[in-house]
Amino acid sequence: MASFLLVHGSCHGAWCWRDLIPALEALGHTARAIDMPSHGADPTPVADVTLDSCRDAILNACTPDTIVVGHSWAGFPISAAAEARPDAMRALIYLCAYVPRDGLSMAEMRRRGPRQTIAHAVEKSADGLSYTVSVDAVPQLFYHDCPDDILPYAYARLCPQAILPQETPLPVGARFAKVPKAYIRTTDDHTIPTEYQADMSACVPENLRRTIDSSHSPFFSHPQELAELLSELAGKL
After folding, report:
1. Domains of the chain, CATH where assigned
2. 26-62, pLDDT tens digit by residue?
3. Which has the closest alpha carbon to 228: 13, 27, 51, 21?
C-alpha cells in the first residue's frame, strides 16, 4: 500500500482533502495533507511566503516512500521539491496541476495557456502581495459539479494566495526528470483548460496519464473515483 502526501492549490488548505483521505484509507493506503505557508493553520505571514518555503514545507513532510500529489498551482512546489531532493520522495502525481517548464514561473505558464479562465476573477490585495478569487466566480471556477454542502464549507476556509511564489521562475533539469510522475487530467475543468493539462501531461509516460470527468475539484466531486485512480497509479509508480 502507498503513503500519499496531499498538497493543495491556490487559496485552499489541507481542508480540501476532507473526503479523499478517508476514501484512500478505505483502500488500505495512508494519506495526510499539509497546509502550505500562510494557508489553513499555518501562521506564516503572506509577505514571507516564497516558492522555496513552499518547497521546503513539502520536503519536511516527505519520506523516500511518499507519493506526493499536487493540485493545481501545487504542481510547482512539488516539482521544486523533486528538483531539490529527488530521493526525498517516491513519485509525483499531478492532479489538474501545472507541470513546470524550465525557467518559467507558474504565472507565466498560466498566461501562455490557450484560454484565460481566471484572470477576470482575481482580486489583488491593496499591498499587492496576494490575491483572492471573487466570491461570485468561485462556484463556476472551482466547484460547479460538487455537492451542495461544499460551497459554505469552502467559503469559510478559502484564504488569500501569496503572489510572489507564483511569479518566481523555476529551473528544472535532470534531478526533476528522474522522479517518476503521473498525471490526472480533469475534463470539465473551468480553471485550467483541459487541453492545456493534456499538453502539460505529455512529460508523463502515456501509461501513467489518466482522466476524470470532473471540475477543478475532484476531491469534492468524485472522491471515490479519484481515490481509485490514485490507488491504481500508485501500483505502477
Report:
1. 3-234 (3.40.50.1820)
2. 999 999 999 999 999 999 999 999 999 999 999 999 9
3. 27
